[in-house]
Each structure stands twice: as C-alpha cells, then as structure tokens.
Amino acid sequence: MAEQIKSVRGMRDILPEQTGIWQNAEAIIFRTLESFGFEEVRLPVVEDLRLFQRSVGSYTDIVQKEMYVFQDKAGRQLALRPEATASVVRAYLEHQLYVKKKITRLYYSGPMFRYDRPQKDRYRQFYQVGAEIFGASSPYFDAELIIILSRILALIGIKEYRFEINSVGCDNCKINYSLKLKEFLNSNKAHMCQDCRLRMQHNVLRVLDCKVDACRKIIRNAPVIGSVLCDNCIKHQEAIYRILDSRTINYEKNQYLVRGLDYYTKTVFELKVGNEENAVAGGGRYDNLVGELGGPQTPAAGFAIGMDRLCSVLKGDAVQKSEVLIVFLDRESIEKGASVVDNSRIDGIKISADYTERSLRNHLKNAGRENVKHILILGENELVRECFLYRNMKDGSQKHVKFGELSNFFKELRDAENPYMRAT
Fold first, then answer.
1. Of the four, 54, 160, 287, 419, which is 20 to 30 A from 403 by CA?
2. Do 347 and 259 have their domain in common?
3. For residue 389, what are the domain limits?
4. In a domain, 143, yes or no
5. Which whole number is the average pLDDT over 121-128?
C-alpha cells in the first residue's frame, strides 16, 4: 500500500459536518454587511512582499517571523497574505475607487496565512471575513463597525460577549507615548524577553502585545497611553463611548490594547465571546495607511472576524439547512421522478437523491444510519398517483405529496426548521 499523505502541520480540512455551521454564519455576516451598505471585493491570495512590509510594519512579529515568503520564476519576492486590510487598500488605490464614492464600504472573505505556532483555534491557514470603510473620519464610523459586529452576534445567537476598546492616538500621541513607555521599560529591560528588547529598539508599542508572562507582569505597571492623548484624540474616543452607551453595547476600556499591526491610529478594539480570552474579531482606525501606500490622505477604519474561532464557539448551535433524501425504488421511478425533483428544488434546503436500485427496507436502514430525518419515496404505487410518499424518520408520520405541490412542501419544511430563512 502506498504511503498516505496527510495535511501539512497547521493546515486543516473543514469537513461537511462543520461547513454547515460556517455557511450559516457567513450568510448572516454577508447579509448584515450588505444591509449597512458594504459591497464585496475579492482579492488575490498572493501579493508583493513590500505591501505587507510597508503596511503591517517591518518589525511586527507577522513580518519578522510569520509570513510565507517565496520568489517566483520571474525573481519577484511575493507573500501569501497574512491579513487582508493591506490588500483591500492596494485594490482601492489600484482601481481608483476613491474617485467613484466619497465613502467606500468594502467587505471580503477568504484564507490568510501565518507561520504561527498551531494551537487551539489558531491555524497557519485561517479564515477571515472583514469590512473596511474609506473616507470616514467621524467617530460614528468607528462605532458603526462595533454596532455591526454586535448585530451579527445577535443574529447568530451569541448573547455573552464584550468589546475591549482603546485609543492608540494620532501620530503625535504615539510618539509622545513611545518615549514615555520606553523610559519605563528601560528600567525593567533585564527581566524582559529577547523579542521585547528588540521591539524596544524599533517599535516599543509592540511590547504591549507580548504574551510572555514575565513581560505581561511588567506591562501591567507601565504608563497608559490615555495619559498623553491630545484633545482631539480624547474627543474622538469619548464620542465613540457615548454612541455605544446609547446602543447599550457591552464594552470595557482596555488602556493596554494596541493590536498586532503598526497601521492603527486612534481607535482599536477586540471582540471576546463568553469566557474566551482569544479575540473572535478585532479592528480599529487606520488614517495613515492609504497615504503610506501611495494614495491620497484618506481616513479609514475596519475590522476582521476570525471565522475559525467564531465557528468553534458556535459548535453545533447554529441553524443548518434541512435535508431531504429522495428514494427511487425502480428504474421507471428514476426516469419519471428525477426531473420532478429537479424542477422543484428551492434555496435553503438540501435535497439529495439516491438512484441506487434496492429495497425500501435497505434505503430506510441507510437513512437511519446517516440520521436523515426527512425521506420522500417514489415507487410503482406512487407513480400511478403522481405523488411522493413522505416519511418523517423521527416520529414515524407519513403523508402523500403531489408532484405539483413538491416545491411548496420543500418551502414549508425549510421555513419550519429554519426561522432565519423565513425571515429573509
């Protein structure tokens, strides 16, 4: 027997019993974003390496340690995207979307790649759905992103969550805070990890994102950025809090939150569900990134949802599509009944046909083993009456469904088991 090849470490397969949860969550997220005026953009997985070096930051862990970098046959240095905001900005500039609209709202979905240490709900290929708003300087845009995330959670059915929010300030605030933080950390340098000593030289704010216990203890006593924020940054942040208070959205002020990317200015936030410490989503404002990548100075803000973590939290609680198994008992039933089924299919329900000619007893036995609840049977007697025999495998109930009424039957079954589909 040939050697079996398995998936690469840090990569994984998402199997059919899981993809139903993913599809339902994605559908809710996409519909919600579109209801707020966002439009989908689809992006390449491979980008010029310089895009992430300039946007994410040369001295972030992502660029220094985690990117998948390679040279193509033309000698170009390329990277698998570790995040998508930089790619969205690149597309926004390359296609001059800023000419078409004053405020541009875009959303994306797809895989990202980081050579990180695999652990619970963290993979080297992971999936995100994200949203970006360009041309948006008002704090209402920052708040809108958080409001959107809270609405998504409500539709999915998650009740226990909190947002952690901070301001990293404008450029001047960040410079002033960096000097103050570096002065404090220098006195504790001997007790910090090697990575943080390097961060202190090149980008001291990255120290606040360290996960090493010894560094975390030191950080808890560090000065907070709120002590150096300018009046404009304070007013911007306080406006966000007032908006969220008016919507009764649960949040906490975390004055040490900085996020792991260099491009953030002013607002940063993370979303945590239940008692989980790992963020399910995060984002903030990045007013300089468009300009730094060669475009006009454009205020912007956005977020990304980690779909691996979100769907892990959902487990089996999300609504999934109803499934109906169609059983044909002979060749004539297949020839006459298959087209009736195909012409009656509707969205939001899985309708699978078994064209294998075998006894009804064996069909039912297989259906029971596969936990199929709904079965439609077509045999000689049903053909004469031009109907299917419906059997509910859970309660044993039966009834006949006329060929011409099959679409309505599917619709009623879908709506009864999936209220969200009925509402939309």
1. 419
2. no
3. 322-423
4. yes
5. 92
